[in-house]
Amino acid sequence: MLLRRLPDPVPPARHEIAASYISRLATLHGLDISHLWVQVTQREKSGGMRRIVIPERLAALTGRSVHELAGAMPELRAPQPDWAMFRHTPQAGCHRCDARHPGGRVTRLLPHHRYVCLRHRTWIGPPDADKPAADLSELPAVIKAQHRHLRLRRRRGWARTFDAVLTAFSFCGHIWDAVLVPETPRHVWHTWDARARVLIPDDDDSTAFRAYSTSKLFAAVYPEAVDLAVIIASPYWRRLADGTTLDRLRFFQEISRRVTYPYKDDPVFGDAIAHWSNTDSWRPPSRPMNTYSPARMKGVIPPLHRAQARRHEKSAHWFGINRKAGSTLLRHNHIRPIITREWRPDYERIEGAIWHSKRIGADFQAETARERAALGDFLLSERSAQEQDRTSERAPSATLAAGNARVSGYQSDETGN
Fold first, then answer.
1. Cα–Cα distance for residue pair 172/189, rounded to 1 Å
2. pLDDT digits (tens, 9 = 90+) for 148-168
3. What pLDDT shows up at residue 131?
4. What is the pTM of this model?
5. SS3 324
6. 86, β-bridge pairs
């Protein structure tokens, strides 16, 4: 099918998904979105109903090169990127950046480390209930945290940074959920509450309800989360967290120093920090639970699901009552890979996983010790098998070398040398 070039082929936005770009093109030119989607896509090789975009067709439609389109849209790149580096759910980005792209809503596939638009100082955050980006002009600490986050990613890599930041978010959620109004004025709770009031004003109930967004609660704890992520991703601090009693005490003191949190090593209701130190610090980083798939059945991006809207309304209602956000953070899908790690038991409800994430009892520590011993035995057996394989590989080579030496000796004797 010969595609005719559109008269106004606007450029795609950075990290925009193909369905969003094609939808904007159809809107600008008064075309049917489904018809245009079929023109530039074809069915997967598996034979299903899902369709993938053909870069050459989209290039012919817009007059832009495949290289230019692929530079903006990860779905068109060849070879395809590692989708684990991106959030699996497309989302809206900075509303001021999107204003330069006409045709409707811009939906992007952002990498894990993008929380702030540094150009316009707005909070992008994790995917949320169709809420626009929040202005951070009054919260410079959040903007600086994004710079530190980017440095951490360059130093430790995306996988270790992903695990460290989400683990730090879970720590902040547990800390915020554990107190009402702390007596000490230096408690980090006061800092988070002050930021939340800037992002979600509580002048009256209706104002707070309209301004509420769970993503904004992540912004309130983001600076401390990045500070904690720096030591969670550090091999040195992970060794201390998994070391002797004195080493662990140094690790806990560093946690307390970075979040001005009066840490206690004998809490009554469990402790997520001690749980991580005992159970997770010696394990490999957790990876995303889901990854993005570039194939879609339709080019139309579905609206917000009613179940998501109900969860948003419920969270806004409870936050308006008690101004506590820790429980909301812990239940958000954004940090689910940390709450439900692959080596933890499967719980039917998220409450069970949250409870398990702060277990520190003697029976649990004994269970963890048995798991670690079993893992150590497994690693030793694997190392022994690998050494045996290397030995068996070297043996034929040595035998062949000895045979060649004997042959060379025979030839030397025959020639008289």
1. 9
2. 999 999 999 999 999 999 999
3. 73
4. 0.85
5. coil
6. 111
**If you ran DSSP here, which 8-state letter would residue 334 be given?**
G
Residue holding tokens 């094609």?
22
Measuring CA to CA, which residue among 9, 212, 18, 6 is closest to residue 106?
Answer: 18
How large is the C-alpha radius of gyration of the chain?
27
What is the side-by-side strand order in the sheet with 122-123?
Answer: 116-117, 122-123, 134-135
- What 24-31 contacts at long range (C-beta under 8 Å, 24+ apart), as own/partner pairs, is 24/101, 24/102, 24/103, 24/104, 24/106, 25/61, 25/62, 25/103, 26/299, 27/103, 27/104, 28/102, 28/103
- Please state the length of the chain: 417
Q: Is 92 helix (H, G, I), strand (E, B) or coil?
A: strand
CA-nearest of 72, 5, 16 to 39 is 5
Please say whether the dihedral angle defined by the alpha carbons of residues 194, 339, 163 and 92, taken in this order, is positive or negative.
negative
By CB atoms closer than 10 A (0-12, 13-18, 19+), residue 152 is: buried
Q: Write the DSSP string, 232-246.
A: HS-HHHHHHHTS-HH
Q: Extract the tokens encoding 334.
A: 């954004």
Q: Which residues are CB-neighbours of 242 under 8 A, at least 6 positions away? A: 277, 281, 282
pLDDT, mean of residues 112-129: 91
CA atoms within 13 A on the CB side of 248: 15
Pairing of β 91-92 and β 51-53: unpaired
